[in-house]
Amino acid sequence: MVKAANPGGTTPGRRRPDRRILVVGGGYVGMYTALRLQRMLKAELGRGEVEILVVTRDPYMTYQPFLPEAAAGNISPRHVVVPLRRELHRCALLIGEATAIDHAKRTATVNTLATEEEGAGPKEIAYDELVLAPGSISRTLPIPGLADHGIGFKAVEEAIGLRNHVIEQMDIASSTRDPAIRDAALTFVFVGGGFAGVEALGELEDMARYAARYYHNIKPADLKWILVEATDRILPEVGEQMGKYAVRELRARNVDVRLETRLESCEDRVAVLSDGSRFPTRTVVWTAGVKPAPLLTATDLPLNGRGRLRCTARLTVEGVEHAWSAGDAAAVPDITADEPGTECAPNAQHALRQTKVLAENIAASLSGRPLREYSHKYAGSVASLGLHKGVAHVYGRKLKGYPAWLMHRMYHLNRMPTFNRKARVLAEWTLAGLFKREIVSLGSLEHPRAEFELAAGGRRTSQGPDGPTGSGDSEDGRGSPKDRPKDGP
């Protein structure tokens, strides 16, 4: 192991700061906590007394609520991500992945992009305060064929890949004379009736229905959209009444909503459901929940039964000093709940507010001041069902249709980090209202060297059933290996 005394770009020869705050994860919690800390500790950072080191796999933070709109082409994918180096300019940023944490020794084991090149093994980074915010990953089940054919929807790369894939399936259907291939290409199965699944389906169905007008032999009625949900309702966060309205709205748009139904297999490009239905399809989108990042099991910190860190209302890890957490990775008690033992839901609404208390408490801890507890009464939820359609249940008030859709947009625009990104998203919405939708597939972006390799006398490394993978349609219909879910069975 290599002892990294000055990781993340600290000046060689400069003494180690008195306090190193290690932030693991560059998502919502990691970025906002580091952003608030660099403001609160500006003087200490300037004097070299404190260092904030952020370890993250990607050099950007993805605002996930906008992924469905990015997939539908309403927002440019680059505008739903926030570049960390520009926003965290007073922090040290290390692009890599933490694989283990030994809090007893105050060290974290990290693989960086240069680890393999150096041949020296992973780095061991010492720290004084730990903020553990690795987020979550897709929760998958051992369903036959899922690892080979399923498409995830948690990353911006997956959103781009899914958009390209849907348009390419319409191209395949338009150009084939085989009715079986055509039907499979125009059948889209979404598994999971939460926010991610419903919003992704709603936006993409909207986009595909619009795109159909430019195909001489495809009508909107030819497209088959299927939503599979294991429970008896969708969007439980917006309440039963609004959930039922969402089902009616989707069914009115020719979406086949299957409640109390499970996906049992998707081998050989056939989606088999628990009710006995079989749908030949080239598209299975898996959005059936998330689970904590695997890193948590590689620590000596206490976890609850669901694999999340046991935390206090002060956002400290229970029974441990100098360790903090919030967001998806943390089981934080909800002190506003009537029922004892209730935990805060792992959603963006709590995560954003938790980061403020978390940063304040870390700064207070460094100066010996008392900590405060996190307290927030759940305000409700909003969800989009496509352009000009939505549902909302906020502070006891229920909205549907255009008002709910507008509230959804305004709420998430307000929550989007940085003024720069807010302005860009608002500008794109304005332009989208003035001009027609973009319906171009850029699937070749997933294999940028394919054409050059062919021209240079090489051969394409993978040949799918419908053509070379350089066309953007890989052998399993999911884009490049980078885009695949990382926790498949």
TrEMBL record:
<dbReference type="InterPro" id="IPR045024">
    <property type="entry name" value="NDH-2"/>
</dbReference>
<dbReference type="InterPro" id="IPR023753">
    <property type="entry name" value="FAD/NAD-binding_dom"/>
</dbReference>
<keyword id="KW-0274">FAD</keyword>
<dbReference type="GO" id="GO:0016491">
    <property type="term" value="F:oxidoreductase activity"/>
</dbReference>
<dbReference type="Pfam" id="PF07992">
    <property type="entry name" value="Pyr_redox_2"/>
</dbReference>
<comment type="similarity">
    <text>Belongs to the NADH dehydrogenase family.</text>
</comment>
<keyword id="KW-0285">Flavoprotein</keyword>
<keyword id="KW-0520">NAD</keyword>
<protein>
    <submittedName>
        <fullName>NAD(P)/FAD-dependent oxidoreductase</fullName>
        <ecNumber>1.6.5.-</ecNumber>
    </submittedName>
</protein>
<dbReference type="InterPro" id="IPR036188">
    <property type="entry name" value="FAD/NAD-bd_sf"/>
</dbReference>
<feature type="domain" description="FAD/NAD(P)-binding">
    <location>
        <begin position="20"/>
        <end position="349"/>
    </location>
</feature>
<feature type="region of interest" description="Disordered">
    <location>
        <begin position="453"/>
        <end position="489"/>
    </location>
</feature>
<feature type="compositionally biased region" description="Basic and acidic residues">
    <location>
        <begin position="475"/>
        <end position="489"/>
    </location>
</feature>
<keyword id="KW-0560">Oxidoreductase</keyword>
